Write a sequence for this structure.
């Protein structure tokens, strides 16, 4: 007996609809679960006071500071490199073997697991360059990790700047670099910022690459050569070593909220940017 | 009136890949006149125009043979400074392209690049340029607002002012009124007839009537060749070539 | 940068442009430099295929970790691939564009949730559930597979949606015009046309799963043994590195870098497969 196509269609739609629903439900559940357990712990006191007893009690202030510093170092290094690469690829060359090599490098770098970045950072920055477990080692390692994201989003952003802007600028006697500086980059800025924000989100959420390069000191850092513990690492240690489930939830809630806000802003910017350029 | 030759082309050919876009053009263009270039689309008018300030250099696969002389100097000579050329030869595009900046910033874009930083001088330049482009009265109270907010006709006049602020010698116009209403078109044409006292103007247009109205000399292009070139009144009344006659009477194009 | 001049700027930018490929080479170079000599001196066969991992006794066989990584990753694919592809197909073909315009970014947003948070949820919610319902220690292949399967959903869904969307509408119209139902069109025309993109999405998801570290450490149990069932505790390649790196020295540390080399090779193979799938699709257009 042959089943009428209408019934198979209904069945298929049902199954796929359920799969979609399940996916969304799982993802939403994760966020709500963390927020529900964590938000009661979170407050200004938790954010701004020092941890006591290995994080069992007290707040996470040095951890917040450490996260910010590490992310800042990563962004300050990766942004010029990433945007520079994007400018070179879009404004200064045509498709060639060199650009293919550059893109291949960025794509491969994007696929490397974070633990490998951690291993590399540990052997190269921490050991060979003798930076030790420090903000600098961790920041440099993260910079390598987020570089492909910044390259790709910047390239998309620069490509979407209308070509007529460049023609006008050239016809008014601007050189290529003047055109890039005064017309292309300002127009592409929202898109570039999106890429940087996504990089910030990744840096904050990263654990494996950071724990072996920045260490896990709970003390307040006083220089770039001090070890710090980021929020993700702190959360991991609290949860894994069973130090304090309560504070682990609190840290997780802050982590999730921060990253969601950052990514939300990034996508918001991107949408406005795309709408503007079309 | 000064009838010196401002621009001369000698055996000018242009290629895009294997395709030849311009067929050996020899033209002398007089200073302080308006040259109108007419012809159907694809006849090489725009290619010719964009060759005059080397904007085609940006197109990959574009190649030029022969020479273009500006005041007797070959602009395609390797030693010729392209950036300086583009400051001397300004270009107005078919669609108005205000840069995403304020009205004021649009006008001073070129002068700033040339290194003019003095506020008073820039202010004077902005006012003079906007007045010459017949738009000063409409925007004088909102120079700081985004140029994108202006109407299409105002934008195009702003773009003209932006070129005038460069104090160029030659102004190239590539169908500048194709997207504009009749009033804006009239304002631009009025501006051009006054500006020719100071500048050499080359106007590419799809609108033969516009050429008849404002041009002193008119050239008719067809399939990359210069078919006929002479005083506008002659070309429109007693065309020498049958194809010119067919085109201006609307048989094709 | 005015003092550099146009040529100077171009040169500086060209130098910067090679930063990504230089970073990649630097990483590969140092991981290999630390790990490869050990593999050669210890013997590649013994290193890869022996099941004895006793760093204190100088025994370094990573076979159990390889098996564990394979099982956990395959399990994750069993969870993530069907769910992700079904989700992508449903969202592109059966849901209004506006709804999808909201759901797709939401799902991509969730890709940003740190892996430690996924791991934690696995420990707090999933593992106890497995322990009480199915037995075993709870922290297991199954728990790892489910958590990783969920983690790679955003990757799979987002890339699949892009590739399904890029199928020309004329294909769909052609099929519908021949009297096919919407579903017949989808599974006989649209999805096959987007096949290589979907495969690339799955391979990239696989790369993410096999490279994932923190979540897997937290939920898979980390016992060094070849699993007998999905409920057994296992330690993956990545977990092996991360767990022991903190205190390893000498030969032990080299062995961990050697594990990194193996991981790097697996990832490179997966990435080039995905690249091939994507290029195949680009070639067809």
């Amino acid at each position: 007996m042959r089943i009428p196509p209408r019934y198979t269609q209904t069945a298929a739609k049902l199954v796929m609809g359920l799969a979609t629903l399940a996916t969304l439900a799982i993802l939403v559940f994760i966020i709500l679960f963390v927020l529900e357990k964590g938000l009661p712990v979170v407050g200004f006191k938790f954010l701004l006071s020092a941890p006591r007893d290995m994080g069992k009690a007290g707040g996470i202030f040095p951890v917040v500071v450490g996260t910010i510093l590490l992310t800042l170092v990563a962004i300050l290094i990766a942004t010029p490199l990433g945007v520079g690469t994007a400018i070179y690829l879009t404004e200064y060359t045509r498709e060639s073997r060199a650009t293919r090599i550059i893109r291949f490098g960025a794509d491969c770098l994007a696929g490397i697991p974070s633990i490998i970045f951690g291993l590399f950072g540990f052997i190269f920055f921490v050991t060979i360059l003798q930076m030790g477990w420090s903000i600098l080692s961790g920041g440099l390692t993260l910079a390598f990790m987020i570089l492909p994201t910044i390259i790709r989003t910047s390239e998309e952003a620069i490509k979407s700047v209308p070509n007529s802007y460049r023609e006008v600028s050239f016809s008014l006697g601007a050189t290529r670099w003047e055109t890039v500086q005064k017309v292309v980059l300002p127009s592409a800025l929202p898109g570039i910022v999106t890429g940087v924000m996504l990089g910030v989100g990744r840096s904050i959420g990263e654990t494996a690459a950071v724990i072996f390069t920045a260490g896990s000191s709970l003390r307040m850092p006083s220089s770039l050569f001090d070890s710090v513990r980021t929020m993700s690492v702190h959360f991991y240690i609290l949860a894994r070593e069973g130090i304090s489930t309560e504070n682990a939830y609190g840290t997780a809630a802050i982590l999730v909220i921060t990253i969601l806000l950052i990514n939300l802003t990034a996508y918001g910017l991107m949408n406005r940017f795309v709408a503007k350029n079309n | 009136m000064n009838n010196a030759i401002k621009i001369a082309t000698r055996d000018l050919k242009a290629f895009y890949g294997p395709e030849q876009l311009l067929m050996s053009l020899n033209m002398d263009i007089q200073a302080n006149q308006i040259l109108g270039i007419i012809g159907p689309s694809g006849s090489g008018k725009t290619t010719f125009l964009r060759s005059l300030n080397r904007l085609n250099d940006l197109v990959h696969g574009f190649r030029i043979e022969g020479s273009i002389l500006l005041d007797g100097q070959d602009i395609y000579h390797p030693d010729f400074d392209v950036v300086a050329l583009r400051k001397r030869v300004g270009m107005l595009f078919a669609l108005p392209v205000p840069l995403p900046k304020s009205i004021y910033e649009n006008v001073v874009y070129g002068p700033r690049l040339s290194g003019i930083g003095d506020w008073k001088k820039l202010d004077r330049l902005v006012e003079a340029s906007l007045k010459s482009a017949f738009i000063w009265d409409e925007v004088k109270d909102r120079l700081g607002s985004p140029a994108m907010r202006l109407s299409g006709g105002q934008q195009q006049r702003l773009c003209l002012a932006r070129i005038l602020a460069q104090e160029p010698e030659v102004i190239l116009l590539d169908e500048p009124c194709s997207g504009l209403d009749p009033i804006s078109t009239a304002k631009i044409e009025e501006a051009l007839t006054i500006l020719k006292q100071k500048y050499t103007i080359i106007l590419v247009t799809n609108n033969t009537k516009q050429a008849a109205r404002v041009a002193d000399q008119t050239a008719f292009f067809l399939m990359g060749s210069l078919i006929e070139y002479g005083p506008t009144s002659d070309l429109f009344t007693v065309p020498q070539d049958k194809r010119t006659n067919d085109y201006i009477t609307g048989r094709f194009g | 940068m005015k003092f550099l001049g146009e040529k100077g700027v171009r040169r500086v930018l060209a130098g910067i442009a090679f930063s990504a490929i230089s970073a990649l080479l630097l990483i590969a170079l140092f991981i290999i430099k630390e790990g490869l000599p050990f593999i050669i001196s210890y013997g590649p066969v013994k290193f890869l295929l022996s099941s004895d991992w006793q760093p204190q006794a100088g025994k370094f066989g990573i076979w159990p970790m390889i098996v564990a990584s394979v099982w956990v990753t395959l399990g994750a694919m069993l969870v993530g691939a069907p769910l992700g592809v079904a989700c992508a197909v449903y969202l592109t073909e059966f849901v209004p564009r506006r709804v999808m315009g909201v759901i797709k970014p939401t799902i991509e947003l969730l890709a940003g949730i740190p892996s430690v948070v996924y791991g934690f949820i696995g420990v707090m919610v999933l593992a106890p559930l497995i322990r009480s319902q199915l037995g075993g220690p709870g922290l297991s292949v199954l728990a790892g597979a489910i958590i990783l399967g969920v983690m790679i959903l955003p990757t799979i869904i987002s890339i699949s949606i892009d590739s399904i969307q890029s199928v020309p509408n004329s294909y769909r119209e052609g099929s519908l015009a021949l009297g096919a139902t919407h579903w017949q069109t989808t599974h006989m025309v649209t999805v096959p046309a987007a096949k290589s993109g979907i495969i690339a999405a799955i391979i990239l998801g696989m790369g993410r799963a096999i490279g994932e570290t923190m979540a897997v450490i937290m939920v898979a149990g980390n016992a060094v043994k070849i699993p007998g069932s999905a409920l057994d505790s296992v330690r993956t390649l990545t977990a092996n590195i991360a767990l022991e790196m903190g205190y390893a020295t000498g030969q032990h540390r080299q062995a961990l870098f050697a594990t990194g080399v193996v991981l790097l090779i697996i990832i490179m193979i997966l990435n080039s497969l995905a690249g091939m799938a994507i290029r195949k699709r680009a070639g067809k257009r």
